[in-house]
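If you are new to this repository, start here. Below is one unmodified record pulled from the training split, so you can see the exact layout before writing a loader.
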Amino acid sequence: MPHPEHKPLGLFWRGVVLLGRVMTATAALALAATILVICVDVALRTAGHPVKGAYDLVRIFGAITIACALPLTTAVKGHVAIEYFFQKLNRTGRLVVDSLMRLIMIGAFALAAWECVGYGNRFLRNRQVTDTIELPIFWLPWLMAAAFGLSAVIVTFHLLHPGREMIRP
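And here is the target side for that same chain:
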C-alpha cells in the first residue's frame, strides 16, 4: 500500500492541478508576449515608429502573468515564509499556527476573488477599455478572480492534507 504522502490524487484534485498547469502556461505565454512587445517597441521606437498601445499591452500581460502564476506557486508552497518563530513552536503550536494561517489565506483569496468579479462586472457595465488601443478589460479581473479562487482551493487541499504535496516543485 502506498505511503499516504504518495497516494494518487483524486479526480477533483487532479482537475485542480490541471487548471493550475493551464494557468501557469498562460502566465508563461503572457510573459513571453510582454518581452516580445517590449523588444519590438524598443526596436521600432529607434526608427521613430513605436508600437501603439505597447503600454496597454504590457500592463495587461503583466497582470495575466502575475495572476496566472499564483495557483501553481501556491500549490508548490513557493510563497515567502518567515519560519524563524514558527520553528520555535512545538508540534501542536506549529499545527495550530499553520492551520490558522491557511484559513486566513483561504479567506483572503476568496475575498479577492469576490472583489475581482465585482470589478469585472463594473468594467463590463461601464464598457471600460484600455487608454490607448481601447481594448475591453472586463475579463481581466474575472481571470484574476479565477486565479484567486483556484488558489483558495489549493490552500484548502494543504489544510485538509497537512504534509502532503499536491505538486512537486
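Two things worth knowing about this chain: The chain has five helices and no strands. The chain has one domain: 4-160.
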